[in-house]
């Protein structure tokens, strides 16, 4: 287990400042008083784990991550329950996904127990930052990057793992309403043998130009198709997708070139418990279009750690569009409510998903 030292921030945010932040946290704009850091080298392994005051990093201009993007991250949340306790949602699944991402990016693997211990330790130190209003939470961002100052093209021999935290309100400022989606037919997110299943910044960087395209067409998010045939739906810029049919079954794109979302797998389990068979398979854009037009597809929704579960409405592309639901679907909202109730301790966690921190 990592031996973590703690040096308290000598100038933490005042209670008044913190109360103002927690009253309107936004998303990813305010950060807690501390951060966790540990480093890896071939000779010493993971060492010098420490919690210190949150602040800027000092990096050599030749730091490898700045040139070759050898970097991965995770996204998760801490939740305040009514009794004041603090919990995280499926943290060991995040830890195992980071192990898989590490292997794909030629980074050292941080054992799952150390990952969870690191996250728990930062949450414990910054516990006062965990919101207690509504469905606000503390967003947690563990990340790992190549920190060796070296311009040769090879895996870094010095790697840094960090955890930072940010109080989070609603991801979409407009509230829960169906998203409009733009289908990009020019850009793809990942290909076979690529990094699509790894949670690495490069995947998100490659999605940004397509997201700009979506916004330019008046849409909220972008939909990516597969790179091989340009026919099969993969995922949105940062969320997994589901399609509910009139007969009750749900289809979600199969993994391999898409991110294996932690929320995605939870939604599959919840849906199956409600009696909805879930098919993980290739799903073509033609099936989506025709399913909406015929009424065979009755609800479309997306999910992710930040947005939880979000309904999808209109799909637009160059030369056409199909209109989905104008209001959130019944199953979409039922799944969202069940998941959120488990996360905030309002419903029994029969799946064993929640991990108590404090």
UniProtKB/TrEMBL annotation:
Q: Name one Pfam family in it.
A: Aminotran_4
Q: Name one GO molecular function term.
A: L-valine-2-oxoglutarate transaminase activity
A single GO BP annotation from the record? L-valine biosynthetic process
Q: In which pathway does it act?
A: Amino-acid biosynthesis; L-leucine biosynthesis; L-leucine from 3-methyl-2-oxobutanoate: step 4/4; Amino-acid biosynthesis; L-valine biosynthesis; L-valine from pyruvate: step 4/4; Amino-acid biosynthesis; L-isoleucine biosynthesis; L-isoleucine from 2-oxobutanoate: step 4/4
**Reactions it catalyzes:** L-valine + 2-oxoglutarate = 3-methyl-2-oxobutanoate + L-glutamate; L-isoleucine + 2-oxoglutarate = (S)-3-methyl-2-oxopentanoate + L-glutamate; L-leucine + 2-oxoglutarate = 4-methyl-2-oxopentanoate + L-glutamate
Modified sites of kind N6-(pyridoxal phosphate)lysine = 199
Which InterPro entries has this protein been placed in? Aminotrans_IV, Aminotrans_IV_CS, Aminotransferase-like, B_amino_transII, BCAT-like_C, BCAT-like_N, BCAT_family
Q: What residue intervals traverse the membrane?
A: none
* Keywords carried by this UniProt record: Amino-acid biosynthesis, Aminotransferase, Branched-chain amino acid biosynthesis, Pyridoxal phosphate, Transferase
This entry's Enzyme Commission designation comes to 2.6.1.42
Which cofactors, by name? pyridoxal 5'-phosphate
Q: Which PANTHER family match?
A: BRANCHED-CHAIN-AMINO-ACID AMINOTRANSFERASE, SUBGROUP IIII AMINOTRANSFERASE
Family membership noted in the UniProt record: Belongs to the class-IV pyridoxal-phosphate-dependent aminotransferase family.
State the name under which the record lists this protein: Branched-chain-amino-acid aminotransferase
Tell me the organism: Nocardioides mangrovicus
């Amino acid at each position: 287990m990592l031996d973590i030292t703690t040096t308290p921030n000598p100038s933490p945010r005042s209670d008044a400042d913190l109360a103002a932040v927690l009253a309107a946290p936004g998303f990813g704009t305010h950060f807690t008083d501390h951060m966790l850091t540990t480093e890896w080298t071939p000779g010493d392994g993971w060492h010098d784990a420490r919690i210190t005051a949150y602040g800027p990093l000092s990096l050599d201009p030749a730091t490898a991550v700045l040139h070759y993007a050898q970097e991965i991250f995770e996204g998760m949340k801490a939740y305040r329950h009514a009794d004041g306790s603090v919990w995280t949602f499926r943290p060991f699944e995040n830890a195992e996904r980071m192990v898989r991402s590490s292997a794909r990016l030629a980074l050292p693997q941080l054992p799952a127990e150390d990952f969870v211990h690191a996250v728990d330790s930062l949450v414990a130190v910054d516990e006062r930052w965990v919101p207690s209003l509504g469905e606000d939470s503390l967003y947690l961002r563990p990340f790992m990057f190549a920190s060796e100052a070296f311009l040769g093209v090879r895996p870094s021999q010095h790697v840094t793992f960090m955890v930072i935290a940010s109080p989070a309100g609603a991801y979409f400022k407009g509230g829960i309403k169906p998203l409009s989606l733009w289908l990009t037919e020019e850009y793809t997110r990942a290909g076979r043998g690529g990094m699509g299943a790894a949670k690495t910044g490069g995947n998100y960087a490659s999605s940004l130009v397509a997201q700009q395209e979506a916004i330019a067409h008046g849409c909220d998010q972008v939909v990516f198709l597969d790179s091989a045939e340009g026919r099969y739906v993969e995922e949105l810029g940062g969320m997994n997708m589901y399609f509910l049919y009139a007969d009750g079954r749900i289809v979600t794109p199969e993994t391999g070139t898409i991110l294996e979302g932690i929320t995605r797998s939870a939604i599959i389990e919840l849906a199956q418990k409600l009696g909805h068979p879930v098919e993980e398979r290739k799903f073509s854009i033609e099936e989506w279009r025709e399913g909406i037009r015929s009424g065979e597809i009755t609800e479309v929704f997306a999910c992710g750690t930040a947005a939880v579960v979000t309904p999808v409405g209109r799909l637009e592309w160059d030369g056409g569009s199909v209109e989905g639901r104008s209001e959130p679907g019944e199953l979409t909202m039922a799944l969202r409510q069940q998941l959120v109730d488990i996360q905030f301790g309002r419903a029994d966690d029969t799946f064993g998903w929640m991990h108590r921190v404090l």
